[in-house]
């Protein structure tokens, strides 16, 4: 197809501003789907996406659009809005030439709107601002347009006003895409360079890769080489999503589609790799992607009904569809064999666990999440640890550095006081204030990541009556007075329950934690001592009393020595049982570590 008639663009916005509904409406308008086929979230084909009403995976779809007697090929990528799926958005932007920046007419510019606008700017994309939901009674489209002008210096009068719900303004938006988004550059006669921007696994056809062809053309039957991995495969099928898969004979420069090549090994595919012809390869690969920064780590162990190899296979298949996930095998005395997994955030962790349970029927036992730390040792070396159990011996540690994030909070002006108090409590450093309008403010802080991943978003919503939004990006590591808080059960440290925290909060957190543990661990036949300790110093203790039989119940009167003899015999039995007995710690007790951090 003539490249001047192709437009590659994505939809970016804050969560719940109507991206997926807008994509649905464009499919309906172009005739890709009929009224009978139409339903909400057409591109969100994961059960979890429909249930939660959010987009988790970026979806690619090709739309044919008639305009001025010409047929344009619009390649749309619908992206997630949640901050945890920032990496999905950055991957989608690399495959595009333009972006629709969608803003809710009632809520205006939000934190993720700002972040996504800057991200699109860094990728040199042409931005088309769209004010959505103009049908709402509380809509204020002109104010939202002025906020966009203030944010990205794009004239307010150039904004497109639409309602994805009613279909109003969809035609204007499609015309703006054709008019403003530049056609792709690239020569169909050059040597093949196709970027893999996503992949998925099909039980019958193996690995299917999603590609954007930058140079040259790819045809069914071609032998292609992965420039990063070096493997050679023969293309068995090419196609586009319209939105149902439709096979084609070739994909030329500027086009987006999928390719199948009987790839059976999941580890052979790397998102960001470049496809080229094996017989006539390109001189160099495309830039690809920066590896994702994992901000939350958690241990996954197979539950009673799951085997370790089954869990590994499920994680490998999930990794193919979720390039931001990492995992490595570990073993723990308390829990056995499992995997240390890295995630982009707490929602990402929840989604992965739920997908394992639903899609692969895996029962997961998880430990409390932690953030990565850097430890400067006394010999000058720097090591990264992602759990308290990996910390070196205390006498070899010079300092512990924690990850610091720059947080943009968009809040109502009358909530500034409550937010500042919340930020101070979480060890934040104030940076700047910027007014979006008379009654909305952007507050910028630097927070330790560990202080915001658990429950900060909930506290923010409470302090702003639901109107506050946040976005964060990691800016580096900073040394602080951090200590390892050990939890001892019957004198034995349990690595899976240990945490790294600030010294000023260690005693309060340790005490809360063992109180929670006392409530979760069932009483045994012997007394159980729960202790929180920093190094050799115990800072808190709780005791779980044993289950006791009333051994003196049948002693009616007589000398006290008869009762004493029975009680001493019981005491000796308890002591012996304590020496050989194991304390059973339930899964809920491990989650108590997380909940103790939330209170």
From TrEMBL:
Q: What residue stretches are annotated with the Tr-type G domain?
A: 4-185
Q: Which InterPro entries match?
A: EF-4, EFG_III/V, EFG_V-like, EFTu-like_2, LepA_C_sf, LepA_CTD, LepA_IV, P-loop_NTPase
* UniProt keyword annotation of GTP-binding present: yes
One Pfam family of this chain: GTP_EFTU_D2
PROSITE patterns, A to Z:
G_TR_2 (PS51722)
Give one GO molecular function term: GTPase activity
Concerning CDD domains, the annotation shows: EF4_II (cd03699), EF4_III (cd16260), LepA (cd01890), lepA_C (cd03709)
Listed A to Z, the keywords are: GTP-binding, Hydrolase, Nucleotide-binding, Protein biosynthesis
Q: Which SUPFAM superfamilies match?
A: EF-G C-terminal domain-like (SSF54980), P-loop containing nucleoside triphosphate hydrolases (SSF52540)
Keyword Hydrolase among record annotations: yes
Gene Ontology terms: biological process? positive regulation of translation; translation
PANTHER family associated with the record: TRANSLATION FACTOR GUF1 HOMOLOG, CHLOROPLASTIC, TRANSLATION FACTOR GUF1-RELATED
- UniProt similarity note: Belongs to the TRAFAC class translation factor GTPase superfamily. Classic translation factor GTPase family. LepA subfamily.
By what name is this protein known?
Tr-type G domain-containing protein
Organism field = marine sediment metagenome
